[in-house]
Design goal:
Structural class: alpha+beta
Radius of gyration: 15 Å
CATH class: Alpha Beta
Shape: globular
Number of strands: 5
Order of helices and strands: EHHEEHEE
CATH topology: Heat Shock Protein 90
Strand content: 15-25%
CATH superfamily: Histidine kinase-like ATPase, C-terminal domain
Number of helices: 3
Helix content: 25-40%
Largest sheet: 5 strands, antiparallel
Strand order of the largest sheet: 1-2-3-5-4
CATH architecture: 2-Layer Sandwich
Distance between the termini: 27 Å
């Protein structure tokens, strides 16, 4: 994790939405549209979209406990070389290192922790801030010659 600072780029887009699975769809679509517009390969778009879905689901379900009176802030900055996405909820937070490894044999049948693993697998950087209420993710685009 090389940069755990807040996004400070001037082209950062910010959406604040209710903690609801339908409300998070428009900003998610806007991020995917921006990735497409910037020419990201389909494999990268798939991975970023999956990581984004996991982060947003975690914010709604685990962070804000499905409370529609709470909000989620989605900020992103995407250009041809780098995608930075930050998801912030109003929950109590959590300590990521306390979540058991979902790949351990005794944990395989349990439906918990896979989202964190997927986010780390598909993004180049994943950093939790504000006691786990905020996740900052980065995907660096590797252009092929």
């Amino acid at each position: 994790m090389t940069d755990s600072n807040r996004q400070s780029r001037s082209d950062c887009e910010v959406s604040t939405v209710p903690s609801d699975s339908l409300a998070i769809q428009p900003p998610k679509k806007a991020i995917v549209d921006k990735l497409t517009q910037c020419g990201y390969p389909e494999d990268d778009i798939f991975g970023i979209k999956l990581a984004l879905e996991e982060a947003l689901t975690n914010a709604v379900k685990h962070g804000n406990k499905n409370d529609p009176s709470k909000t989620i802030v989605i900020s992103y900055s995407i250009d041809e070389t780098r995608a930075e996405i930050t998801i912030t909820d109003q929950g109590e937070g959590f300590e990521p290192h306390t979540i058991p490894d979902c790949t351990e044999p005794d944990r395989l049948p349990l439906p918990f922790g896979r989202g964190l693993m997927l986010m780390r697998a598909y993004m180049d950087e994943v950093c939790y801030r504000d006691n786990g209420r905020e996740v900052y993710m980065v995907k660096n685009r590797v252009k092929k010659p």
